[in-house]
Design a protein that fits this description.
The chain is α+β, with helices and mostly antiparallel strands. 55% of the residues lie in helices and 9% in strands. The strands form 2 sheets. Strands 4-3-2-1-5-8-9 form a 7-stranded antiparallel sheet. The relative contact order is 0.08.
Length: 565
Amino acid sequence: MLFLFLTGLLAAAAFGILVTRIFYPHHRRIALALYLAGWVPFLISIKQHRDMLNRAAEPLQGMLTGYELHVVLLIALFVAGYLIRTLLPSTASPAEELSDDALSNLLDQDLRLLRYLLSRLDGALDALIGSGLLKPSTEPPTAEDNRELRDLWAAYVEASFELDVLKYRHRSFHQLAWKSPAQAEAFLISYGAFAVQYGAELTLTQAVSTNDRVKTVLNEADPTFDLPADCYAAIQLRLLHPDTVVRLNAGRAWIKVIRTDLTRHAALLDRVEDALRSVDVAVSRDPLNVLRNPMHYLEKRAFDTWFPVQKEAAVQVSYVRATSRRYFISRQTAAGITERLQPGDILFQRREWHLTNLGIPGYWTHAALYLGSPADLEAHFAGLAELQGGSVADYLAARRPEAWAALQEADSAGEPRSVIEALRPGVVLHSVAESCSCDSLGVLRPRISRADTLAAVVEALAHLGKPYDYNFDFTSDNALVCSELIYKAFHASQDIVLEPEETNGRLLLSPNQMAIKFDNELGGDTAQLDFVLFLDGRDIDVVEERDATAFRSAWQRPKWHILFT
């Protein structure tokens, strides 16, 4: 039992390391090593169990003696059955029911279609790789980068899917007349689509390599193009699936047998053989790349299994507050700072005794963006050239109609919604009184033009209604955390640079990091943030307004600062 327990423990440790990415970037190697190590106590346990049975019942010894050939034959039968199932599917294709003339027309048509689809696949792959969007980057992609990547990915998937249709239509080429020209052409269509597609997928996965940020985008569902989730993960799994490997190599042998029947399709045959040679070269140059694909797939599946648990735990923790007192900064006090704010101001907030503070690095644990009320926006951006003589209302209504409508609605207390932030319910609009009722509050103002500030407002409103990102992944635009909303809002501006840092394989930017940026740059020529105010809560309704010097050092406070004040 001890060895079985040790096997389970090692397997659980491997699973935990894989999904939590502890020891990144070596987590996959360590997880694999632990998994393989788990086999050692398992095999020892089997040996001990067998020895125990032998000692307990001597007649059990030698019960398989004389049946060695039968065992080998049984294994061979299983292998043969698998090969038959894989290489010779039993379902018939429409081609079998056609007359000779109709079959000939279908084959001619599909051979032309194959050439066209192969050129489309090549073009889509070249565009994907040539875009440079698959290369590793030190910062998350912009929304424009993600949109372009999705467009290029959709074009590739569409061409690949149409090749799947051709493969399926001629899957039962073996059931046509034995070694006839028709059978050879049907095989060329089916196997040609398969081989070139496999070569393209291998090239694609080599280009993406271990770029997890790109994988996130390629695996996202996209209703615009009817793309389901995990398209890229399916490709990774397929590359080293036993069925795929068997078909790829059996086809190599068969194409040599029927080559004489394909002389009039020499160009297409050459294209298929070029694809096979490119596969051989790719595998010989980087064999681990092919082996990594199923490992990455299993890592993703393990994480997909774990993520609902992680999310539910995070949701439950977000409800936990170790005190029932109200926040030091009251709603009334918070509402009183509104006249000192401008659209584009970044709000830094601290709420004591929240269990979520344990998982967020630094003293400042939340950030929000002040937009202003509709009247504030009109006053602040009046006369801006980008409005082309129109109003802010017309400008925002044309670009973000639903968000603009929501911004005009007062909250349940009758106060204007003027702050956008990512919280447990998702990206929402709140009043200043609701958002800034906390224990400590800081406000910084980016040194950017009014035009860039308006662009930041428009970009922030684009994310309204999106869910909270419990995976804390800046790559994805489908869900956001609080600081990610700030990052994406200002990303297009050249005058403020917010730099995420890599943590456990993910690029993250915490509110505390932005406060550190202000501290590092204050007083210098390159400063990109200006101080607006700092309300330092000491007790209920005991709030001290402090200066920039106090704010710049606040980020250094310990997590449990409240215990030492």
